[in-house]
Amino acid sequence: MAIKLSSLIDKHRKYYERNEKKAFDKARRYYRGSFFSLQDSTFTDTDNMSKSLLCSKNLIYAIADTAVSALLGPNPQVAANPRSVRSQEVTPAVNGLMEWTFKTNRMRRRAATALIDAVLCKRGIFKTGWDAVKDRPNITVVDPSSLFFDLTVRDVADIRYWLEATVLPWHEFKARVESGQYASKKLKDVEPDRYPKWLLGDSSNKAGADAVRDSFKWVTVWEYYDRERGIMQHYVQQADAVVFEEKIDYVPYSMFSLNHSGVDCTGLSEVQLVLNQQETVNDLLTHWKQITYLMIPRILYDAGRITEEDLNKAVEASTGSFIGIAPENSESLRTLATLFYEMPMPQTPMGVKEFILRQEEDAAFISALAEAARGQVTGARTATEMAIIDAQMRTRLATREGHVNDALEDVASKAFYLSSKYMTQPKMVRVAGDRKWESVSLETIRDVDVDFEMVSYSPMKQNPSVVAETLLQLVPLLMQNPNIDIRRLTEEIVSGMGIPARVLLPEQEVAQKVAAETQLAQQQALGGAAAQGGGPPMGAEGDIPPEMLAALMGAESGASPEESLAAGGGAAIREGAPPEA
User: Fold this and answer.
1) Distance from CA of residue 394 to its chain's centroid?
2) Residue 1 per-residue DSSP state
3) Distances in whole angstroms, Cα of residue 418 to Cα of each of 17, 136, 361
4) When comparing pLDDT for 197 and 204, which is higher?
5) 311-331 b/e (C-beta count within 10 Å ≥ 16 → b)
6) How far apart are CA 223 and CA 242, in angstroms?
7) In terms of Cα–Cα distance, which of 60, 61, 56 is closest to 281?
8) CA-derived radius of gyration, the chain
9) DSSP calls for 222-269
10) pLDDT by residue (tens digit) across 377-418?
11) Distance, CA of 111 to CA of 259 (rounded, Å)
């Protein structure tokens, strides 16, 4: 098996260096704004050209930045969908645990890194493992340059094997050997080495970065995951030895691409499709800048009739002063105007600006992210038209957003699986949909059957002011609905408007106040008998005199004042009614 691994590694490295490395390095360099080099620029005299004359417009960074803002919310979250009654009872706790897991792993930052990898280098890759020290799932982002996989399938779920180059510091490798984690008869043949050059990108400060890396000693360990046989191996190619092997029941990688390559799982980068447009725009902008600099006025003078020293004295002299000059032919020189000549001014080619715009339009036609990066909507005159155009843009980006969401949902599933298998200490998490905190232990999530779905992000829904305004508009309708808890509705409005919760009275105090008001109203309806202390206390219906009970029931049934008076109640006669004779 070791010989087959060595051969497999060599073949994958040759494929990567021949087909992907140059494109990856160029896309990353353009993303950082390093456009001009002797290798890639169309200029033949780049090194001799002044850097001040170079001009560029970074379309690549705009595309990547738009991808992050359009496809990721400010805080990626997943929601658990229960698959059984037992799972439904603990779903809020599961959601709270996954929110805690994503927060502790800084998923916003990691997801943005993986998404930028997918934009520039075809694919983004998450790796989910278990951190025994921190007792939680550990989610990292893998460099697409260091992970190889089965190229014979067209879907990620069908990949048979994964092969990752992990570069370990020499002291960490020795610690694993001494602890017995790594074991092999060939370990004595392993020697420290430099950081692999084929894993390094093309950087403008490559020499300085290499010097920093060479300050340490490294060992490259290959992690091989065989999904069909269910094993994971650590292989050191230098010693041609498998130093670690273990059974696995899941694969830690969650890979996604924004676009399918049409051939295999390597993916397709939108940035690499518009690199030619990017280079053309930069070259035209550089030429345009040179022409603009040549349009700055320059003065030619007759050096045979006057010296440069005399001209400098005239320019530097103060206002109103006399300047002595010694021209070669003073008789023919009566005015300084005859010494100077007009320099030809270059004209900006008419088609430069139009062609630059055409290249940008071509980039937007190819890439939906490039179109969204322009940040403007033309032709919209009303809010409805603006909403329709925005909906069309979201529809074009929907497939890309779905690929990112699928990867994050897979990460959540693996993180929950590892938590339900290896978690030892209970975690205090905030229960989803509530303000209370709850302890989640291994017993809580054991045998829970759930799957996960990304919570879609909406800027309008996540804005507290917009939520509060919407609730206020719905208050009249909600107040009339018997299925709505008015207390909870008020709490949501107060919270959405940013008002402290302490302005609300405690529920117990409100209940006591309502009870006191109800009792006072009943006393007033009974004619003040209870207030005078002459009647029996309020209690069961048998404790109330029959005539008072009849009067009270008559008032509740909407009887007329005359009928209430006839029944012996204390209801007043209508205002304005003449007294009886």
Assistant:
1) 16
2) -
3) 35, 8, 47
4) 197
5) beeeeeeeeeeeeeeebeeee
6) 10
7) 56
8) 39
9) EEEEETTTTEEEEEETTTTEEEEEEE-SS--EEEE-SS--SSSSS---
10) 555 455 565 566 666 677 778 888 899 999 999 999 999 999
11) 17
C-alpha to C-alpha distance for 404 and 407, rounded to whole angstroms: 5
- The owner of tokens 């829970």 is 448
Identify which of 83-97, 238-252, 291-305, 550-564 has the greatest average pLDDT.
238-252
**Per the structure block, which two tokens stand in for 73?**
């919310």
Centre a 10 Å sphere on the Cβ of residue 61 and count the other Cβ atoms it contains. Answer: 16
Q: Cα–Cα distance between 515 and 526 in angstroms, integer?
A: 17
Q: Work out the percent of the chain whose per-residue pLDDT is above 70.
A: 76
Confidence check: pLDDT of 507 > 50:
yes
Q: Is 128 helix (H, G, I), strand (E, B) or coil?
A: strand
* Tokens 């399918």 -> residue: 260
CA-based end-to-end distance of the chain: 120
Phi and psi based region of residue 147 (left: phi greater than 0; alpha: psi -120 to 50; beta: remaining): beta
| Residue 421, both tokens | 């298998």
| Residue 146, both tokens | 């260091």
SS3 category, 428: strand
pLDDT of residue 572: 46
Q: Are 307 and 372 within 8 A, CB to CB?
A: no
Q: Which amino acid, residue 356?
A: I
Q: What percent of the chain has pLDDT over 90?
A: 33
Distance, CA of 346 to CA of 365 (rounded, Å): 34
- How many alpha carbons lie under 13 Å from residue 503 in its C-beta half-sphere? 10
CA dist 275 → 16, 59, 129, 296, 354 (Å): 19, 9, 36, 33, 19
**200-249: pLDDT as tens digits:** 877 655 666 677 788 889 999 999 999 999 999 999 998 899 999 999 99
Q: Which residue has the tokens 């989610």?
A: 139
Strand order, beta sheet including 136-142: 136-142, 124-131, 253-256
Q: How many CB atoms lie within 10 A of CB 553?
A: 13
Angle between helical axes of 107-121 and 21-31 (0-180°, round to 10): 120
